[in-house]
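Form 7-S
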Amino acid sequence: PDQGHKPARAALGGGRHDGTDFAEIRLRPSYHELMDPESGYVRGAQIEFLDFAFRRYANGEGLRLEEFKPVDIVSISPRNDFFKTLSWKVDVGWTRRQLESGAQRLVFELNAGVGLARNMPDSLHGKTLIYAFLDASSRADKRIGRGYALGAGPSIGVIADLTPNWRTDWYARGQRYFSGDTNTAWEAGLRQRYTLNTNNALRLDVQRERQEQRSWNSALISLHHYF
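Output:
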């Protein structure tokens, strides 16, 4: 454990969302996420508390809260011939979502999922992890549909450590909201992390997303410092 990064994290970066440039600052007092440098931590485990992000867009809208998650936990436990463990995840918080009107608002969400994972022993010296979840989602906000949305759908991904410092995560997720604000949403993307040293890393996130009959691309490059 003494070889791992420190628990608090600050990130500063910039990117482009749906054709508009932005700057972002993200802060988290603790603890560890899947894309953080892994040394000293359990592979496939994520526990984050009080993670929040602010963005300022180039369209003059001003600084705004983009996301706030009090709790975000993921446990990806690979199965093998001896251990038939289940993977699971749960998160709760507020996230910017596209509304039918076209506006982007902070919406309260509670998400949970259960799934399976497997290490691929013949790829990259066993450093490739494949996972799949069945997710359930709920949203609540007076500005969406009937004020709430309930949905479910699959999510899949491949985490690969291309080098000791370079990790990638290819992922895709779909949700069919069948009660309240009914619609279909999906997202797919690639997250990358390159470790500079124990307490510093570079991140590149690219994503294609669809909500409320609209699709858009986003990209973010950021420097993460752990303290």
